[in-house]
Request: fold
Amino acid sequence: MIRAGLRGMRGGAGCTSLTAGLAYSLSLLGKSVLCVDMCASNQLRLHFNHPLQAVEGWSRRDGTDVRSACFELSSKLAVLPHGGHRDADITAQGPGPELEALTAGFDWVLFDLGSSSPAPARPDLSLDIELRVLPLDVAAVMRLDRADLQADAPPLLINRYNPTRPLQRDLVTLLDSFSDLATVSQKVHEDPAFEEALASKMPVGYYASQSMACQDLTGLATWCLSHAAHGSAPRG
Amino acid sequence: MSQTPKSAIEAAVHRTDDIARLKQHLHASGMVYHDFAREQRQTSVVHRWPLLGELAARLTDTPSVKEQP
Reply:
C-alpha cells in the first residue's frame, strides 16, 4: 500500500479537486484507492456525490466506528470524509488506529491535507509520497523560501498552468532555474472542468473524460505509479 | 534492490533536466555544460518582472537585478 498526500502552498490551491481527480484516475488504472479528507472544510466528499448536509466523518467522535463513515463509489474507490468537526486537537490526532484497519486491502491511500499556511498540527501519516500543490500565480510563488530548495522538501506540483499567458510561462521558467527545487514534471493546466465537476458533484475525470484536466490527472496518476513502483523512474 | 517509494521520489523528482540525465547515463558528472538559451530566458524573466527578480535573489542568495552594478 502506498500512502500519498497533497498539501497546498496556500488555501485554495486546488488540493481537494486534485485529490479527488487523482483518486479517480488511479482507480481507472486498476488500483484500489481510499481518499481521506484531513480538512475541516469537509469538501472532498462533495466530489463523490455525497449529500452537502451529511455530517458523517472521522472527526465526529460520537462513539461510532470510523469505518461506518466511509463510503464506496465502486469496488476500486472509497472515501472517508472529515466530518467537519473544527477541533484542532482532533485534527492533530487524525483518524486514529481505526484508519489502519480501514486502509487494509487498498493499493493507495490518498490524503487531502489542505493548506500548509499556517502549518497546522497533523498526525504522523507516514506518507510515502507528499506533493505540495502550487497554484501558478505570483502570490503563491512568492511563498517559496529556501527551505523549499532543501533536498528533503516534498516536490511541487504546479496547478492551474495556463501557457497562453506570458507571465505564467515566465513563472515556469523561473521555477526551472532553481536547480534544487523538486518539481513534478506533469503540470496540471487551468481548466474550467474542475469547477464544473465539483458543481456536478463528480471527480473531473468522470465529469469530463476528454478534458485537459482529465489528461493531466491521468499523467499524474501514471507519474505516481511509476515513482512508487520503480526506484529508477525518470527524473522530474 | 528497488528503492522504497519515499526514497524513490526523493531521488527521482529533483527536476526535469535531460542534460543531468545524460551526464548520469554517461557517468560524466564532471562534464561542464551551459545552456545559454535557457540562461538567457531566465535573465530576461527577472529583468521583465522585478518581483520575480527579488525572489530569485532571495532564494539563491545573489544580488537582485537592481542591486547588480
Observations:
- Chain B is about 60% helix and 0% strand.
- Residues 36-48 of chain B form the longest helix (13 residues).
- Residues 19 and 67 of chain B are 31 Å apart (CA to CA).
